[in-house]
Amino acid sequence: MPAIAIIGAQWGDEGKGKATDLLGSSVDYVVKFNGGNNAGHTVVVGDQKYALHLLPSGILTPGCTPVIGNGVVVDLDVLFEEIDGLEARGVDTSALVVSASAHVIADYNRQVDKVTERFLGSRKIGTTGRGIGPTYADKMNRIGIRVQDLFDEKILRQKVEGALELKSQVLTKIYNRRAPEADEIVEQLVRHADRLRPMVADTGLLLNQALDRGQVVLLEAGQATLLDVDHGTYPFVTSSSATAGGACTGSGIPPMRLDQVIGIVKAYTTRVGEGPFPTELFDDSGEHLRKVGAEFGTTTGRPRRCGWYDAVIARYAARVNGVTDFVLTKLDVLTGLEQVPVCVAYDVNGARHDEMPVNQTDFHHAVPIYEYLPGWWEDISHCRTFADLPQNAQDYVRAVEGMSGARISAVGVGPDRDATVVVHPLI
């Protein structure tokens, strides 16, 4: 049985939880392999809405083992706050497994994140201020703290003191902020050790053994392709690998075991934070998409920037990730529009670009070239087969599919868990 990656194919918030739900009881493990609590999934089950920030969406699927992989950075306060919140609502979280090699966000990482953004001013990246980037920087600088370090206080203290040799200088001498003491950080971290210990495992071994047994492992990305630190709109990106390649390094599953890559795209485009966005709308159309689509961040509450569907980005994501299937979400948000623009290429200083410009400057100045497709007025939230969709909605899906580099296997027609049109089975 396969390992399957679910990847955001735009700038995030595409509705990756919807695809996870589609696979349902077929999935034995759901693995979060990158990011931290800087992004979230909203999952609707019946009349209940769950906002997940750090936990994999599989936490809501009975019989599924949710896994936080080695590529994730973990804020332990947030982890247990989220677990307690779900338990209070009757969700069983006892199956959760956390990688011993995942890195831990320390308080000084949050401090550095916030003061750095303020210091950058107009050149800010638009981070969430949750310490994600500085924690990944510590990981690459080899001064990071891992989950397993919490179980050896002597090692933990040595690592904290080593990290603070640098952080203290930065916070006090550059940013004029009080640096925390090593005792503070150690105390904040070790108080979670006893509760965390039963959850911790060698998750790479666990997942490979599951595949050997013929079980299905779903690898779930945080953020998305255009936010990937290597393949995104750098420097306005996240600090981790949110593409299919990151699914392997962030989970310990080798590339040859990855059989399917499902890319998630909205029927329009959104992003949060700073950075270029060719199809962004600054008029009533953008406000309409934001209002009807409820485009506010799951984790931050920030209003999302909204624009029309960008087929250039979709083709790029299909290529970078090896997308085998797209899931097109939020088609219902486009209902009631007389016509729906789709970006098919860019104009950069008079030259047409059918693929992503290689230079950041060119992408920043890209002007979308649109094709206009006829809209529809019918309510599609009840549709469950492709034939149920109005003809113009079917034509929109087929047109977008032809532009995007992979087949569209499912279409989201509403926020409910079952509000999906399945065109081709995903597994």
TrEMBL record:
<keyword id="KW-0460">Magnesium</keyword>
<keyword id="KW-0436">Ligase</keyword>
<dbReference type="GO" id="GO:0005737">
    <property type="term" value="C:cytoplasm"/>
</dbReference>
<comment type="similarity">
    <text>Belongs to the adenylosuccinate synthetase family.</text>
</comment>
<dbReference type="InterPro" id="IPR042111">
    <property type="entry name" value="Adenylosuccinate_synth_dom3"/>
</dbReference>
<feature type="binding site" description="in other chain">
    <location>
        <position position="302"/>
    </location>
    <ligand>
        <name>IMP</name>
    </ligand>
</feature>
<feature type="binding site" description="in other chain">
    <location>
        <begin position="13"/>
        <end position="16"/>
    </location>
    <ligand>
        <name>IMP</name>
    </ligand>
</feature>
<dbReference type="GO" id="GO:0044208">
    <property type="term" value="P:'de novo' AMP biosynthetic process"/>
</dbReference>
<feature type="binding site" description="in other chain">
    <location>
        <position position="238"/>
    </location>
    <ligand>
        <name>IMP</name>
    </ligand>
</feature>
<feature type="active site" description="Proton acceptor">
    <location>
        <position position="13"/>
    </location>
</feature>
<feature type="binding site" description="in other chain">
    <location>
        <begin position="38"/>
        <end position="41"/>
    </location>
    <ligand>
        <name>IMP</name>
    </ligand>
</feature>
<protein>
    <recommendedName>
        <fullName>Adenylosuccinate synthetase</fullName>
        <ecNumber>6.3.4.4</ecNumber>
    </recommendedName>
</protein>
<keyword id="KW-0342">GTP-binding</keyword>
<feature type="binding site">
    <location>
        <begin position="330"/>
        <end position="332"/>
    </location>
    <ligand>
        <name>GTP</name>
    </ligand>
</feature>
<feature type="binding site">
    <location>
        <position position="13"/>
    </location>
    <ligand>
        <name>Mg(2+)</name>
    </ligand>
</feature>
<feature type="binding site">
    <location>
        <position position="304"/>
    </location>
    <ligand>
        <name>GTP</name>
    </ligand>
</feature>
<dbReference type="InterPro" id="IPR018220">
    <property type="entry name" value="Adenylosuccin_syn_GTP-bd"/>
</dbReference>
<keyword id="KW-0479">Metal-binding</keyword>
<keyword id="KW-0547">Nucleotide-binding</keyword>
<keyword id="KW-0963">Cytoplasm</keyword>
<dbReference type="GO" id="GO:0005525">
    <property type="term" value="F:GTP binding"/>
</dbReference>
<dbReference type="Pfam" id="PF00709">
    <property type="entry name" value="Adenylsucc_synt"/>
</dbReference>
<comment type="subunit">
    <text>Homodimer.</text>
</comment>
<feature type="binding site">
    <location>
        <begin position="12"/>
        <end position="18"/>
    </location>
    <ligand>
        <name>GTP</name>
    </ligand>
</feature>
<dbReference type="InterPro" id="IPR042109">
    <property type="entry name" value="Adenylosuccinate_synth_dom1"/>
</dbReference>
<feature type="binding site">
    <location>
        <begin position="40"/>
        <end position="42"/>
    </location>
    <ligand>
        <name>GTP</name>
    </ligand>
</feature>
<dbReference type="InterPro" id="IPR001114">
    <property type="entry name" value="Adenylosuccinate_synthetase"/>
</dbReference>
<dbReference type="InterPro" id="IPR027417">
    <property type="entry name" value="P-loop_NTPase"/>
</dbReference>
<dbReference type="GO" id="GO:0046040">
    <property type="term" value="P:IMP metabolic process"/>
</dbReference>
<feature type="active site" description="Proton donor">
    <location>
        <position position="41"/>
    </location>
</feature>
<dbReference type="InterPro" id="IPR033128">
    <property type="entry name" value="Adenylosuccin_syn_Lys_AS"/>
</dbReference>
<comment type="pathway">
    <text>Purine metabolism; AMP biosynthesis via de novo pathway; AMP from IMP: step 1/2.</text>
</comment>
<feature type="binding site">
    <location>
        <position position="40"/>
    </location>
    <ligand>
        <name>Mg(2+)</name>
    </ligand>
</feature>
<feature type="binding site">
    <location>
        <begin position="412"/>
        <end position="414"/>
    </location>
    <ligand>
        <name>GTP</name>
    </ligand>
</feature>
<feature type="binding site" description="in other chain">
    <location>
        <position position="128"/>
    </location>
    <ligand>
        <name>IMP</name>
    </ligand>
</feature>
<comment type="function">
    <text>Plays an important role in the de novo pathway of purine nucleotide biosynthesis. Catalyzes the first committed step in the biosynthesis of AMP from IMP.</text>
</comment>
<feature type="binding site">
    <location>
        <position position="142"/>
    </location>
    <ligand>
        <name>IMP</name>
    </ligand>
</feature>
<feature type="binding site" description="in other chain">
    <location>
        <position position="223"/>
    </location>
    <ligand>
        <name>IMP</name>
    </ligand>
</feature>
<keyword id="KW-0658">Purine biosynthesis</keyword>
<dbReference type="GO" id="GO:0000287">
    <property type="term" value="F:magnesium ion binding"/>
</dbReference>
<dbReference type="GO" id="GO:0004019">
    <property type="term" value="F:adenylosuccinate synthase activity"/>
</dbReference>
<dbReference type="InterPro" id="IPR042110">
    <property type="entry name" value="Adenylosuccinate_synth_dom2"/>
</dbReference>
